[in-house]
């Protein structure tokens, strides 16, 4: 699965302005993709006869094996990981974030010497970084050498590993009280109505805080069905994204429960496709739409917990953001009951 667009985006931004604030998002994006099990394309320089003897599918199937003995690629399969030598004589391993990036260009960015014939296999990012770390005579990894390349040296790799130790991307759930528009998370969820054109309650608060561009964006979405979720940028908010979902207008039918579950589930599913790793929900449908707070809180907690259980490796921080004291106390009480 190659889903490394956020790495390419972060490298592109860094290429435009080589600064620390632009460097950190590259490391963060690599961590996020690593956690999602994404892969790099790894070119291998091996002769036709070597490769003819090999069953590359077998190699791919044995991806886990790389983790055990990280250089098994070379030893067990006699594959020579492609290296590039920079003008200062230093050796680097090579990885591509996408098929597009791996297509070799005739001219190379200055400082990079062409390599030999290559074949490509896909390997989990975590294994690639392990190989880099354990290959003594390389400086690090050049990501996408043929275009906007990033020299991921071992020093930076160490910084990322430290971040991993200090801020592991684990699933977590928090109950907080306050104004959701103030949160510095990847995405906040809006309890919208089907038109997505704004309204009162948290919908109104989010539109006010995000600014007028939000309405321009939601007009383009063409509305949203109950239980579904759509995404826009966060504009003036600290949050990068706003996920708009429409809760059920409570009438006591069973479908209300399913619709409310879908709001939380579909918002989390949509968040994952956008590499969101921290998301805040308001108490959907418990205001204007009249859903009983206690019932809604139970549905929210069970649905979020189910999603986190089904995505144990993803690393999602979920905040259930209560605005009023009553909602906050209900969540606290139910969370205690759940954990007993
Ligand atoms: N931050 C966090 N939560 C908030 C905020 C805020 N700034 N403002 C309100 N809330 C809370 C409310 O207290 C309630 O607990 O959000 C929860 C959902 O209430 P509503 O905003 O009324 O949303 P909902 O019940 O889903 O009704 C949606 O109301 O605002 C309109 O356009 C919206 O038609 C839609 C309907």
Secondary structure elements and pairings:
Blueprint lengths: L4 H12 L3 H16 L3 E6 L3 H6 L2 H6 L1 H6 L3 H4 L7 E3 L5 E5 L3 H4 L16 E6 H10 L5 E4 L6 E4 H13 L5 E6 L9 E6 L8 H10 L2 H9 L7 E5 L7 E6 L7 H20 L4 E4 L11 H18 L6 E6 L2 H15 L1
Helix pairs in contact: 1-2, 12-13, 13-14
Total number of strands: 12
Tell me what portion of residues adopts beta-strand conformation: 15-25%
Query: What structural category characterises the helix and strand content?
Result: alpha/beta
* Main pleated-sheet profile: 6 strands, mixed
Tertiary shape: elongated
Radius of gyration: 24 Å
Please give the alpha-carbon distance between the first and last residues: 38 Å
* Discrete helix count: 14
Just give the CATH class of the largest domain.
Alpha Beta
Task: Give the number of domains.
Answer: 2
Bound molecules: adenosine-5-diphosphoribose
What topology, given as strand order, has the largest sheet? 7-12-11-8-10-9
Helix content, binned percent: 40-55%
In the CATH hierarchy, what is the architecture of the largest domain at level 2? 3-Layer(aba) Sandwich
The averaged pLDDT comes out at 87
Low-confidence stretches: 65-71, 111-117
């Amino acid at each position: 699965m190659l889903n490394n667009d956020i790495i390419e985006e972060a490298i592109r931004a860094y290429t435009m302005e080589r600064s620390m604030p632009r460097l950190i998002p590259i490391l963060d994006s690599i961590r996020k993709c690593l956690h999602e099990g994404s892969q790099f394309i790894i070119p291998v320089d091996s002769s036709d006869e070597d490769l003819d003897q090999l069953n590359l599918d077998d190699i791919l199937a044995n991806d886990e094996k790389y983790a055990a003995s990280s250089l098994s690629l070379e030893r067990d399969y006699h594959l020579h990981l492609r290296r590039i030598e920079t003008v200062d004589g230093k050796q680097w391993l090579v990885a591509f974030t996408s098929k597009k990036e791996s297509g070799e260009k005739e001219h190379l960015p200055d400082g990079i010497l062409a390599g030999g014939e290559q074949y490509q296999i896909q390997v989990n990012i975590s294994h690639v970084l392990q190989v880099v770390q354990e290959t003594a005579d390389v400086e690090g990894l050049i990501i996408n050498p043929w275009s906007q390349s990033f020299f991921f040296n071992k020093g930076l790799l160490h910084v990322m590993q430290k971040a991993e130790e200090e801020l592991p991307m684990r699933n977590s759930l928090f109950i907080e009280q306050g104004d959701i528009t103030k949160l510095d998370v990847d995405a906040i969820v809006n309890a919208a109505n089907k038109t997505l054109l704004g309204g009162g309650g948290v919908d109104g608060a989010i539109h006010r805080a995000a600014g007028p561009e939000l309405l321009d964006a939601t007009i383009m979405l063409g509305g949203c069905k109950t239980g579904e979720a759509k995404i826009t940028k966060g504009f003036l908010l600290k949050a990068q994204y706003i996920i708009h979902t429409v809760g059920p207008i409570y009438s006591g039918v069973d479908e209300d429960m399913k619709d409310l579950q879908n709001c939380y589930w579909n918002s989390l599913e949509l968040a994952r496709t956008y590499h969101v790793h921290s998301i805040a929900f308001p108490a959907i449908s418990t205001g204007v739409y009249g859903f009983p707070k206690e019932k809604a809180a139970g549905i929210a907690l069970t649905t979020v917990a189910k999603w986190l259980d089904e995505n144990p490796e993803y690393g999602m921080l979920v905040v259930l953001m209560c605005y009023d004291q009553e909602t906050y106390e209900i969540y606290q009480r139910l969370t205690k009951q759940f954990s007993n």
